[in-house]
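Hey, quick one: can you model this chain's 3D structure?
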Amino acid sequence: MGRGGAALSTPPFLELPQGTHRVALSVSAGPLSAHETHPPGDIEARAEVICVPGFTGSKEDFLPMLEPLGRAGIRVLSIDQRGQCDSPGLPLQTPYTLEGYGEDLRELITQRAEAGIPVHLVGHSFGGYVTRQALLGGPKLPLATVTLLGTGPGAVPAPASYRVRVFLAATQLMSPVTGNRLLRLDRHPDPAIQRFVRHRIRGNDRRALQAMARWLLTEPDRVDELRAVLQRDELPCFAVCGVNESTWSAAEQQSMAERLGVPFTVIPEAGHSVNVDQPELLVETLLGYWASAAVHQADAAEPAG
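Sure thing. Here's the predicted structure for all 305 residues.
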């Protein structure tokens, strides 16, 4: 979800940084659309990060992070999830399930790890649910770290849940396009961004959005399950949110991190979409965590004595 809870998130710009291309990814349930960023030609890719957007988001939500990550030698894959924006939805006879979203992500992680460089995973908001489901949905994945960005332990609490309920009710009564015309969710001073938001609204599969909204309202607390998997897989995990978080409070996310036994950071002057509000600081924070996790893993691998 974007800054407004159930409101559409809005990227600050649409220009693709140098080295970024739109790509089509192949997984069992059908193609997924993504942006893939490679570091500048004189910088060797030393790791990759897969970025998973939230409820009403898309791959464009991570655009502000692509250039600073590329400069640091990080290859980036930011995706549209199933039924989001440019990724086609499921056939009408096929129901959306959280397990299906998790399986899409598991396949992508396995594919990307074949390049032989460390793969990090960042799940934002509802993308955190999918990240968690991917980890819980099978054996150990070839991941270096996982980051939960602006996501919580279970269902969205009030008052954000009220916005999700209104969104869900509206989509049951009218199409997203009609709802946008009434709510004017695409209001933005930049006509190009207005056009993009309208494109995303038209591209979203209404059934996918409704399924995501229901999960946001009903998802149980699965922190203990996730902690067990992180310990089983010896997988470093990190939780990050904005100080002005408007969905799950910063205090609730800190409590989740404590239960998981993982580090937690609050980003200043940022709300729910830290990747939009403070992209450079978020990148700096992620790079610092990835470096410290690598050192810790190297130390743990050293033979005793």
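One thing worth noting: The chain is about 45% helix and 15% strand.
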